[in-house]
């Protein structure tokens, strides 16, 4: 079964998109938003959940087992493993007509 790539939030004209990229998965969800603030709020919500999973479920320590880099419109979470690094990137882009 093919994965759906776009998540619509009943928008007529999206103004921003939140792109999520996983180095360890082919899934690349795209979320559409009517404004930047909604996109930023969703991005931070998803980042917070991934940090919770890393710390509570995977028993990792920030700074040792994973790091989070915050930029204006982008967040990168890198989890360190003995044989690889798993990177998740969230990025907000403006939709232009």
List the helices and strands and how they pair.
Blueprint: E1 6-7, E2 16-22, E3 30-33, H1 36-57, E4 66-70, E5 74-80, E6 85-94
Parallel strand pairs: 1-3
Antiparallel strand pairs: 2-3, 2-6, 4-5, 5-6
Report what the structure shows.
The protein has 97 residues and is of the alpha+beta class. Helices cover 23% and strands 36% of the residues. It has one helix and six strands. The chain has one helix spanning 36-57, and strands at residues 6-7, 16-22, 30-33, 66-70, 74-80, 85-94. The protein has a six-stranded mixed sheet, covered by helices on one side. Strand 2 (16-22) and strand 3 form a beta hairpin. The longest helix has 22 residues, at 36-57. The protein is elongated and about 45 Å long. The N and C termini lie far apart (33 Å). The mean pLDDT is 89.
Summarize, please.
The chain has 97 residues and is an alpha+beta fold.
Integer average pLDDT: 89
Structural class: alpha+beta
Strand order of the largest sheet: 1-3-2-6-5-4
- Gyration radius (Cα, Å) is 15 Å
Q: Tags for this entry?
A:
97 residues; alpha+beta; 6 strands; 23% helix; 36% strand
